[in-house]
Write a structure and sequence with these properties.
The chain is of the alpha/beta class. About 40% of the residues lie in helices and about 15% in strands. The strands form 2 sheets. The protein has an 8-stranded parallel beta barrel with strand order 3-4-5-6-7-8-9-10, surrounded by 4 helices. The chain has a two-stranded antiparallel ribbon with strand order 1-2. The longest helix is centred in the last third of the chain and has 17 residues.
Length: about 325
């Protein structure tokens, strides 16, 4: 499978990233192993997680996803350099606040490495903005981890254009490397936060972009058409907000493209993201092998200019 260069990170990834937020939540360890085997066997190589996944599940405390990935990596026998591991730091793991201090990053990275059962993380992301910590302190910590060989590249998640510019200015002023990758929320429905200044900045500065909530909590799969469809679903509460005029307009456009291409709505929604010039790869999750096989098809789906235009208009 053809890989894409992830901005200035020096990493190359397939055009779809597996979202590890489901591990330890809607996918137990056995299911997670099967999904990761199938994903990598299909030619994909990047897996996204975070230290805080999946702390929202009753009985969990965070670290469950990284632990499952580490267990899989060890038992699978796959070469470490065949997989690009992406994880994040900065969420509240008991400190009582988001934390990108040097002290916390240095502590958290050791815990992530231990759970992932590896000696290095390929891409380490600052998960959230932290108003308590200067950019220089956070960037210096990341740079130190790269120098120590514990991290290959670093980036950020959830920064807007002004924050990303400010972090770059801070890096330049302190003689530190800039963030080389960004993980924003972006999909056919949620577009305002990325399109415009932030996307333009990423393209101009060669910042690699991997998008999260790429299927809008599963809404863009097309399986949720009414509030009744969301009842009892793990993501039901998150999906209900998409069931408005705009959301239904997007579903109609996806249905039309589906009828003309034979592809499923989720495959089309991911292919739309892959075709966006500022996007390196979307992140998407699956909880069973049939879902995964469908998502994998998006990497070989090319949408026509008319189809792209119709989808753009529906979600405008």
């Amino acid at each position: 499978m053809q890989k894409r260069t992830l901005g200035r990170t020096g990493l190359s990834i397939a055009p779809l990233v597996f979202g590890g937020n489901v591990f330890g939540w809607t996918a137990d360890e056995k299911t997670s192993f099967a999904l990761l085997d199938a994903f990598t066997d299909a030619g994909f190589n990047a897996i996204d997680t975070a230290d805080v996944y999946s702390s929202w599940v009753p009985g969990n405390k965070g670290g469950e996803s990284e632990t499952i990935i580490g267990n899989w990596l060890r038992q699978s026998g796959r070469a470490r350099d065949s997989v690009v591991l992406i994880t994040k730091v900065g969420s509240d793991m008991g400190q009582g606040h988001r934390d990108l201090s040097r002290k916390w990053i240095m502590e958290a990275v050791e815990a992530s490495l231990k759970r992932l059962k590896t000696d290095h993380i390929d891409l380490y992301l600052s998960h959230w903005p932290d108003d308590r910590t200067p950019y220089e302190e956070t960037l210096e910590a990341h740079a130190a981890l790269v120098k120590a060989g514990k991290v290959r590249a670093f980036g950020a998640s959830n920064l807007d254009a002004a924050q990303l510019q400010a972090s770059s200015a801070a890096a330049d002023g302190a003689g530190l490397p800039r963030y080389a990758a960004l993980q924003p929320e972006y999909n056919l429905y949620d577009r305002d936060g990325f399109e415009g200044p932030l996307a333009e900045l990423c393209a101009r500065e060669n910042i690699g972009v991997i998008t999260y909530f790429s299927l809008a909590h599963g809404f863009l799969s097309g399986k949720y058409r009414s509030v009744a469809d969301t009842e009892g679903a793990a993501r039901g509460g998150s999906v209900a907000g998409y069931l408005d005029a705009k959301g239904l307009r997007i579903l109609a456009a996806l249905d039309k493209v589906s009828a003309e291409t034979g592809a499923k709505p989720a495959e089309i929604a991911l292919a739309w993201l892959m075709a966006k010039p500022a996007v390196t790869a979307p992140i998407a999750s699956a909880t069973n092998l049939d879902q995964l096989k469908s998502l994998a098809k998006s990497a070989s789906l090319t949408l026509s200019a008319d189809h792209m235009a119709a989808l753009d208009a529906a979600g405008a």
